[in-house]
Amino acid sequence: MSEVKETTPEELERRLENNDNLTIIDVREDEEVEQGMIEGAKHIPLGEIPESLDNLDKEENYVLVCRSGARSMRASAFLKEHGYKVENMAGGMLEWKGDVKR
């Protein structure tokens, strides 16, 4: 299996400020997301990723996020195996210093 690219929270924040063409997918559970989510992120809990494939565009660049980076890495690897362009945000929301939407 090929390596999933990782990005840092700081790098992701810079790319969002530059309006880079990317979509953030937050794979945390509902109660975690209620505590705040990166502005503009789509919420798809990890367990719903497989049935959400039809709603994702293989031309889109996705950055996956969870609490610590472990679940989003699993989701990233799964999506990459299915032909999607993905990156994992290392450190997850524990490392995110930017704004969150509640």
UniProtKB/TrEMBL annotation:
<feature type="domain" description="Rhodanese">
    <location>
        <begin position="18"/>
        <end position="101"/>
    </location>
</feature>
<dbReference type="InterPro" id="IPR050229">
    <property type="entry name" value="GlpE_sulfurtransferase"/>
</dbReference>
<protein>
    <submittedName>
        <fullName>Rhodanese-like domain-containing protein</fullName>
    </submittedName>
</protein>
<dbReference type="InterPro" id="IPR036873">
    <property type="entry name" value="Rhodanese-like_dom_sf"/>
</dbReference>
<dbReference type="InterPro" id="IPR001763">
    <property type="entry name" value="Rhodanese-like_dom"/>
</dbReference>
<dbReference type="Pfam" id="PF00581">
    <property type="entry name" value="Rhodanese"/>
</dbReference>
